[in-house]
Amino acid sequence: MSQRQRAWMLPFLTRVCGAAVRVYYRFTAEGVAPRSGPVLFVANHPNSIVDAVVATAAAGRPIRFLAKAPLFEEQLMGWLVRAAGAIPVYRRQDDPALMERNATVFEAVHQALAAGDAVGIFPEGLSHSEPSLARLRTGAARISLGAANREEIRFPIVPIGIIHRQKERFRSDTLALVGPPVGWTDLAGRGEDDVEAVRELTRRIEAALREVTVNVERLEDRPMIECAEAIYASELGLEMSGERRVYRLRQATETLTRLRREEPERVERLSDDVESFGWTLDVLGLKPGDLDRAVRLRAAAGWSLKVFGLLVLLGPLAAAGHVVFFVPYQATGWIATRPRVSVERRSSWKLLAGAALYLTWIALISVAAGLLLSTGWGVAALIGLPGLALVTQFVRERWREARAQAHRVRLLRRTGDVRERLLAKRRSLARELDGLRGRP
Question: pTM value?
Answer without folding.
Answer: 0.86
